[in-house]
Amino acid sequence: MAPTVDPAQLLDGFVVVLCIGFILYGVLCAQAFYYWGTYTKDHWAVKTLVAIVWILESLHVAFCIHIVHTYFVLSIRDPEHATKIIWSVGATMILGALISIQIQGFYIWRIWRLRRQAIVSGILVSGFSLAHVVLGANAKAI
After folding, report:
1. Could you tell me the residue ranges of all domains in the chain?
2. Using one digit for the tens of pLDDT, what is the confidence trace for 46-82?
C-alpha cells in the first residue's frame, strides 16, 4: 500500500506565502501607478524598466493563481495529484529569475552611474547577482 499524502500538510505553507505575495503584488501595482503619474519627466528607459517589471510580476501572479487553481480546485478529489509539479511552477521560477536580473541590473547601472570609478563595486555586485540567479535556478531545478 502506497503512503498517503495529506494535502493540507503539504500545501499549508504554500497558501500563506501566496497570500503574502498577492498582498505585495498589490503594493507593487500601487507604487508603479504612483511612479507613472508622479515622475513624468524620468528617462524613458527607467519608465520602461518599471513597465517590464510590472508586466513580468503580473504574469508571475497569474501563474501563481493557476497553481492555486490546479492544486486546490482541480485536484481536490485526488490528493496524490498534489505531489506532482505542474508547468506553471517552472514558469514562476523563470519569471522570478527574469525579475531579479532586471532589478539587480538596474542597481548595478545606478552604482556605476553614481560613481564611475566604482568599477570594482559594479563587478562585485554583478558577480553576486549572477551567482544568485545561477544558484537559484539550480536549486529550483532540484
Report:
1. 7-141
2. 999 999 999 999 999 999 999 888 888 887 777 777 7
What pLDDT, on the 0 to 100 scale, is given for residue 27? 97
What does pTM read for this prediction? Answer: 0.78
- Tell me the C-alpha distance between 118 and 22, whole Å: 37
Cβ atoms of residues 5 and 83 within 8 Å: yes
How many DSSP H helices and E strands does the chain contain? 4, 0
Give residue for cell 503594493: 27
Q: CA of 26: how far to CAs of 36, 61, 93, in Å?
A: 16, 10, 20
3-state helix/strand/coil string of the chain: CCCCCCHHHHHHHHHHHHHHHHHHHHHHHHHHHHHHHHCCCCCHHHHHHHHHHHHHHHHHHHHHHHHHHHHHHHCCCCHHHHHCCCHHHHHHHHHHHHHHHHHHHHHHHHHHHHCCCCHHHHHHHHHHHHHHHHHHHHHHHC
Q: Which amino acid is at 15?
A: V
